[in-house]
Amino acid sequence: MENNISDLRQQEKLSSAFTLSDMEIFIFPELFYPLVMANIMSPIIWSWRDDPWFSDISERGFISKMNRIKQYIIDNYVFNLDLETWGLTTQESEIKRFSPFFDVEILRQSNALFGYEGDKYYFDIDIRKHFGLDKYDSTIIPYWKTETIEAMNAFNHKKGFYTGAGECVSLSALYAAAIFIVGRVPLEKIFLIATPLHSQNFVNEQDGLITNNRRIVTRNMWFNGTSLSSKARRALENERVTIVSHISGYIHTIYNEATIDRAAYVDFKESLSNFLTTSLSPDIFISFLRSSAGYRKLFQFRVSASGKDRYIPVEKIFEYEHSSRYNLTLESRKKLIGDIDGDEFSLSPLSSRYLLNDLEDAMHGTKTSSRDSIYRLFINAGFDSSILRETNLLDDIDSFISTVPHLPATDRNFIPAPSPEIGTELEREQIIDLITLLSPENEMSMLSLYVYRKMDVIEWEPFIKAAIERNNVSFSDLAAEDQNSLYHRINGLDNFSIYDGDRFAMPDEVWNFGRGDGIEKALLMASVLVHKNPGERITVEISGSDVKLFVASAIFGFISEKGFNRIIRIEGKTYTVDKLNVI
Fold first, then answer.
1. Residue 111 pLDDT exceeds 70
2. Alpha helices in 42-119, H assignment, sequence order
3. How far apart are CA 292 and CA 558, in angstroms?
4. What is the dihedral of CA 195, 201, 205, 208, to 10 degrees?
5. Using alpha carbons only, what angle is made at residue 108 by residues 105 and 111, rounded to the nearest 5 degrees?
6. Which pTM value belongs to this model?
7. Predicted confidence band at 3 (pLDDT cuts at 50, 70, 90)?
8. CA 537 to CA 375: how far, in whole Å?
9. Are 85 and 473 in contact (CB under 8 A)?
10. Which of 479, 484, 499, 504 is nearest to 577 (CA)?
């Protein structure tokens, strides 16, 4: 029985390499970094190097490189969280699929589609409504799927889109590959971080950098108090990190065994902690007030001009900051104050407000980070201790200057595994050759070939399984078609694959983007026929450019440019693929 479950788990894992749903990556975290590797093996991001936008990229510093990559991604991809892009499924069918080898109760605690609501912050903003999950109040759930770079680019063929698109995990994998290929940052420095509702990267270079959907966050930005940085902080402040993935392996919050290199993970934790922690200074306190508007009413600011002191509520200064190119930090404060109308100031101190100037004077020359030292600093600046006791000011400052991420603990069984050594000096073809060479002995390399869909090397059965069983979006769109009308609708799509060479698109990609090679179209048709009649027996015969689908007494023909010779037999959920002998 144990061997059967193990075999079933392996079958599901290999077939999940082609669909990469949110839940599949959660259950099979070993698929996370292979998505990055598949994007690295793809020719698409390598072509970015030839774009004039990156002509001087090698001459730029780290942050400048990252900003170039960020702007390119913003210009060419949108964040897509249309939960029905890839169709609908049901909780029952997903639970049935994974329950033989996974505790479903753990899934309910960690996955947004199975009951995860989030921590306190998310309860406050109603996270299910925020992500559009509130309308799924039954067991019907969206098939939340991660896209390869090819699928992301193909969105410009989909109605309503004018550029590429992707959800958060797709953008995370895209960023990681682009940072390696275009930014030439070693993969050893790029860590993927997954929480139940977000996916981010941490790049362990210089002071560190976090990618968040289409944007990047530097350490200075993390503490600048703007709405953009507040959104970037949300996941690590409020969610448990479920997966940290790296070129050396992964660590998962629910699995006792971890394959990530232990030293690399410890270094990641330390570097991330340094990134997320700072000392209280005048500028950091201004950033805190920028993000926590409720505390501004405690303060006034004194300005000396023409031999006279004038006073202004701090919240009034922030109002002007919104429409000014300057801000209240020390470097540009004088120019911001100069933009404020004179009648906003009072010649007398404002009652019941503390002077921000006095607090800043107390901060100068100190590195204050502990709660006790911050308390003493406020007392020395003239604060009434009752204010500190009656408000959450100290707690909120502490949270602002020090984010403690809920990372998987290091008390795991770390199982060292060889990882591919892929340097930034290697070219694309060399990387593909290396991954292919290592694949018999290295799981990450093997899974990378599956995610990449290198059909001339990998076994076809897992791909056929995924294509037939998890083509949700076209099932609903094509369910009413009879065989002949189904064939004509599918064969009428553009005869062009979104994947180059001998790689295949999944049927849902063919349908969503309105194009596909003849093999891909035949599998799309087969998947719909099996969905309508689960006992259907179907044979797909591929002989070079000639593709035939046999069902009952009917034969349907397609044209392929992939150059394969195979015979695919589908009977229920049994799939066999053999080489076709061509005479």
1. no
2. 43-48, 62-76, 91-98, 104-110
3. 61
4. -60
5. 140
6. 0.93
7. very low
8. 74
9. yes
10. 504
